[in-house]
Amino acid sequence: MKKILVVDDSRTIRAAIRRILEPLGFEVDEAENGEMALHYCQEWGGVDAILLDIDMPVMDGLTFLGELRRNVHLAQPPVIMCTTHSSFDKISQALELGADEYIMKPFSAEIVSGKLTGIGIAV
Prior knowledge:
Elements: E1 3-7, H1 11-21, E2 27-31, H2 34-43, E3 49-53, H3 61-70, E4 79-83, H4 88-97, E5 101-104, H5 109-118
Parallel strand pairs: 1-2, 1-3, 3-4, 4-5
Helix pairs in contact: 2-3, 3-4
């Protein structure tokens, strides 16, 4: 079973993504900010992909992504940014930092599964 780490400060968004992914056969773990996600990756690693919000308290998604990609000792799973930003500034910054794809909120199950397939995660 493929494992996805969902990182978002909104419990509602995390639950919505879980409701999309679990019926598709994914195991879902959650973190509510980038600091918790970084700790998760350091302690547990082993995720097949990360769905990552940009704007979060404590450590935002861009900071987390930069830390993840700079740390050669951590696994480097594909990262899909989830954002409400219609401005391409933060999206392009995320792609420069090593994000593989992005999704605009709100999103559908079809969009999520399509993006996962697009980065090589079988749905």
